[in-house]
Amino acid sequence: MLALVVLWIVPLMTISRALDHDWASVWSALRVPSMNLPFSDLRVITGGIKTQQLGGNPITDNVGEALHRPMNYPRIWLYLFSWMGINESNVELVGIAFCIFYLICISLLIQQCTSAAGIVVLLIAALSVAPLFAIERANTDLLIFTLVFLVCLAGNRFLKSGVFFVAAALKIYPFAALIVDAIRRPWKERTVPLALAGLVVLSFAWQWRDFDAIRHSTPISPTLSYGVLCLKAQAAYMSRKFFVSSCVLAGFIAGVTWLVRPQLDESLWDSKPGQLFLIFAGIYVFTFAIGSNWNYRLIFLLPTLPLAIELVRVTKNAPWSIAYIATVLLAENSSARGLYQATSLGDLATWAIFVALLIILLQQASRLVFARSDISAPPKQSASSVA
After folding, report:
1. CA distance 387 to 383
2. 3-state secondary structure the chain
3. Would you place residue 371 in the very low, low, confident or very high pLDDT band (cuts 50, 70, 90)?
4. How far apart are CA 99 and CA 140, in angstroms?
5. Structure confidence by residue, pLDDT tens digits, 115-171
6. Residue 305's closest CA among 109, 128, 163?
7. In the chain, where are the structural domains located?
8. Short-list 306, 301, 376, 371, CA closest to 145
9. CA nearest 335: which of 99, 132, 145?
10. CA–CA separation, 122 and 3 (whole Å)
């Protein structure tokens, strides 16, 4: 109960005080990167509506937004906000609602945790800089996080596929959740998620001009982002010696991660923490591999922690679990204002997490694809048995 009280009081009181006083200074006191506009990421969409009404293209030149930031969301957000009547006068209510959605999900995670130490870990992770960064911006990732998390708790597989499809249409990267969900199912039940995944790909192809514009207009921050494109941008400013050293270190991390990878019972993957781990691991790996992501997207690592917390009790996997939890906490706090000198540590942390999760996902995919294909195939009969 104490953990839940702290979980809700910290962000809600921060929002209340920031709205009544200076928004940026209040968040900066918590080391959270901030802008002067409250819930500024939502205002990109409300500004985009104004730009569209003026006959402009908000994805390339968002003149209706206060800072003229291009809208880096699919156009469906414009239609949703217009239909729901969301504008500058009520956008702050939407930002508070997004925060409440996130807190509900984390409350469910904490309630399901059975150890005091695990609850403390979840509370620290939930109130780290990355989640608070998402709340400060009221980024739509909070809504996507809520949709994916809540449907993972539901037992209806058709509902799960449908919600993953909607989330992918809204923000692209939940496409990975559709693929992971399809692979985890028996062969006969893969038709629906794979068909929906195909529709998502067709939707991407239809909107390729918008996505290309979004890719080029989204800035890559050297201190507030993670992913392949972020590392590529940073490498352009490295000396040759430092670049080689970084590559050697990255390779060393990948090798160690492979050697100490956990060997888990299959029953653990079928448990609720195991399912959450695989779905959200898939999303994180996808976001890391395809581009550059603002650090608030690291909230998608939080649902992977319950399984890691449970594995601390298993002697053979305890070192891996402790190292994983510590690395996630490091990544979640690497963008703290005033600690930008820790950017290299944050990059190493996000890279190590990417490698660890990719190895696990590939192992699970290999096991499920080949094992279930063997199960579904009819057993071969010998000539003597047929006779």
Report:
1. 6
2. CHHHHHHHHHHHHHHHHHHHCCHHHHHHCCCCCCCCCCCHHHHHHHHHHHHHHCCCCCCCCCCCCCCCCCCCCCCHHHHHHHHHCCCCCCHHHHHHHHHHHHHHHHHHHHHHCCCHHHHHHHHHHHCCHHHHHHHHHCCCHHHHHHHHHHHHHCCCHHHHHHHHHHHHHHHCCCHHHHHHHHHHCCHHHCHHHHHHHHHHHHHHHHCHHHHHHHHHHCCCCCCCEECHHHHHHHHCCCCHHHHHHHHHHHHHHHHHHHHCCCCCCHHHHHCHHHHHHHHHHHHHHHHHHHCCEEHHHHHHHHHHHHHHHHHCCCHHHHHHHHHHHHHHHHHHCCCCCCCHHHHHHHHHHHHHHHHHHHHHHHHHHHHHHHHHHHHHCCCCCCHHHHC
3. low
4. 10
5. 899 999 999 999 999 999 999 999 999 999 999 999 998 877 788 889 999 999 999
6. 109
7. 2-373
8. 301
9. 132
10. 9
β-strand partners of 293: 226
Cα dist. 1→110, 121, 149 in Å? 10, 15, 22
pLDDT of residue 370: 60
Distances (CA, A) of 161 to 208, 274, 301: 23, 18, 21
Which amino acid appears at position 224 of this protein? L
Residue carrying structure tokens 């890559």: 220
Q: What is the pLDDT of residues 49-100, one digit of tens each?
A: 999 988 888 988 888 888 888 888 888 999 999 999 999 889 999 999 999 9
